Amino acid sequence: MSNAETTPSARLQEFQGEVDAMKVDGGKANPERSWLILGSLLMIVGIVFSLIGWLNIQGSGKGAKTDDFLAMGTFGLVLAVVGAALFIVMSLRRYFRYWLVRLIFEQREAADRIAGK
Amino acid sequence: MTPILELNNIRGGYGTIDVLHGVNLKVEAGQVHALLGPNGAGKTTTLGICSGQIVPSGGQLIISGREVNGVSSDSLARAGVCLVPEGRGIFPNLTVTENLRMFTHAGASMSDVQDKAFNQFPRLKERRKQVAGTMSGGEQQMLAMSRALAVNPSLLLLDELSMGLAPLIVEELYERVAELAADGISILVVEQFAQAVLGVSTVASIMLHGRITRTGPPAEIAEELTEAYLGGTTH
């Protein structure tokens, strides 16, 4: 069933054209690392914003400036929560993946033991 | 002629864990290439890389002479690379007709899709109003392969076609695979159960522990399979 022709068929030529026109952006093999770093940075930045907001509100009365720092602190809290959520999700994904791979390797070892290796 | 699919020293897996450790594989135009191996060998991961769902961490994925590492899976699908995944990949809560309608996304008309599906698999016509999830495994697999027919692929990737199916049904399905190959579609088929696929393939490879250990004509591979899987103990 192998194709012994040297000239490609119309379908293959069309496929070749589609492949040549494809956009290839070279995605990442391990995007989780980027998300982990982003999550960590968001947590740190969020905590810093919250601290700055809280420190500047201390002892101040009501006013426009107080409201600004309140908003800043709230925004910081949101960033910290989002960052923490990202970090936890990506960490859990890594953990469960290691667990799954461990199962696969144990399965291979079991198969090798049965085969007498 | 340029191979339609080439994997050069491909490494890849999930996150930081590589399950493929330097895979080299070529599918020539019009070939049926069988990739055989036990559970956990890395066959499905290989198909994931070929279909763009997994980005390789090393090596080159070459489609029709162009390196396409990191290409999106939908771009590959639009270009003509069709994956029929393990577990059928149909919509179990939709009827056969509704599933076929979902296959018109590639631009084919509903009448064309139905004609191709019902001509190849008359049983689907009888069950066109039946909910897909209530059909037998073999019928679901036929429906899954109808998607492959509908999109008119140049490269078809089949993952464990025989999974959970009776031998007679498997034989019928592989006869369809042979017909698709005769139409000029290049096919990479992953199987755990070799006898089903060796009869229709033009070349076969054995994959163990994330590496391809042997490639050759099906007859030679068939003789070496038991030894390859069990490491030499054949009693």
Describe the protein's architecture and organization:
The complex is a heterodimer of chains A (117) and B (235). Chain A is 78% helix and 0% strand. The radius of gyration of chain A is 27 Å and the shape is flat. Chain A has 117 residues and is mainly α. The two termini of chain A are 38 Å apart. In chain A, helix 2 packs antiparallel against helix 3. The N terminus of chain A is likely disordered. Chain A has 3 helices and no strands. Chain A has one domain. Chain B is α/β, with parallel strands linked by helices and 235 residues long. Chain B folds into 2 domains: 155 residues, Rossmann fold (3-Layer(aba) Sandwich), CATH 3.40.50; 72 residues, no CATH class. Chain B is 37% helix and 26% strand. In chain B, the strands form 2 sheets. In chain B, strands 6-7-8-3-9-10 form a 6-stranded mixed beta sheet, sandwiched between helices. In chain B, strands 2-1-4-5 form a 4-stranded antiparallel beta sheet, with helices on one face. In chain B, strand 9 and strand 10 form a beta hairpin. The longest helix of chain B is centred in the C-terminal third of the chain and has 16 residues. The model of chain B has no long low-confidence stretch (mean pLDDT 88). Chains A and B meet through helix 1 and helix 3 of A and strand 5, helix 2 and helix 7 of B.
